[in-house]
Amino acid sequence: MFWYKGITRISEDKCRRNILEDPESRTFRGTIEVKFPADPGCHEEDFRMELIHYGKTIERTFRMVLGGSPVLSEITSDPRDPHYGQSVTLRCQVTGDCDPRDMAVKWLKGDKPLEKGEGAEKRITEKDGSVSCSLQITATALDHRGSYSCSVTHEGKTLRKKHYVHLPDKAPTLSAITVRPERPVSGKEAVFTVTISGFTPDIRVKWYKDFSTFPRDAITTSDPEIGQDFLFTCSTSLRFTPQDSDHEALLRCEVTHTASKKFHEQKYKLLLSGGTSTSAEEHRSLYTQDSGHVKPPVKLRGIRCLTETPRVGGEVSLTCYVGGCDADNTVFVWRKGMFPINGKIQNQNLEDGSGCVSTITFIALESDRDCRVTCETTYNLETREEHLALTLQ
Q1: pLDDT (tens digit, 9 = 90+) per residue, 163-184?
Q2: CA separation for the pair 177, 253 (Å, rounded)
Q3: Which of 161, 169, 242, 306 has its CA 20 to 30 A from that of 121?
Q4: Domain check: are 319 and 259 in the same one?
Q5: CA–CA separation, 348 vs 332, rounded Å?
Q6: What's the total number of domains in the chain?
Q7: Where along the sequence do coiled-coil regions lie (predicted)?
């Protein structure tokens, strides 16, 4: 048998047992006590008795309340599950046989006292002598998984209750990639920018050229600020100097939302001034869905969506090019998230012998919105993956 004050075990010399055996039933009964001098640090402290019998643990807990000291209730929230932009009232009731005029009350956000304008505080003395302390705030992304505390100081001792605001995770929305100058020129620096909005913490941002990641010093992501929707908004920019060999390269901004584990991306086909390009319609014409035949010399990099406007409930066709292997000896696995896609798969070699393509056609479901599609290929014991964030209308 053990006694604890909070998480600290009380020494056995302060504990006393008075256990007696009933001779008729051969069972035991009695009391176990702990004796110590009470001090202000004992107020609202949990004392716990732990009894272990044949491997089974029995616990009893007692919260000590000292006379003349305030007692704080748990903080309540109205509404309990607010929306972003909604007014929220946090309330803590202070009771106990002490004079309310001797109490100093303040609210904290995290571990810091509220600054001016961060919330409207109110303190009302009820008829029964208790004090109702309230704080009114407007819920924003700054409050996501954050806490507020009501702190009461009386006769030099401070008591505190903490409350976490229940706010939902919000994944970001990405704007299209904008570029300055509008038509980049080989050998001159260009800036590519994406606006990221409507999200709660945290996000990770990466930029790619085809399959290569840009270094961090080429990327600038602004600090998130609260937007008109009371959620975070920021922008990310890529600065780099394209060369002639970068003409028609695919630039990609990838944003991963940590809380929801959702993946979003925007793509931009780099067309340098004075270069030749292939239109999106010409890209689509390189593949005939009926026959699965690929005209030479196509080298599509990564996963491409062949369906012009993919919609929930409609057929969606995706294709993936893999260089340096042939369809007969390559294993293709298509997945949505962690699960295989139930669809029709066609694998074909390119006529110039440079590689092969795999195409899958399936019916898009509501759950497929913003899902991450993966095409996994295995050739000569080497496995690689291509990814696409599927956006549905």
Answers
A1: 999 999 999 999 999 999 988 9
A2: 8
A3: 169
A4: no
A5: 11
A6: 4
A7: none
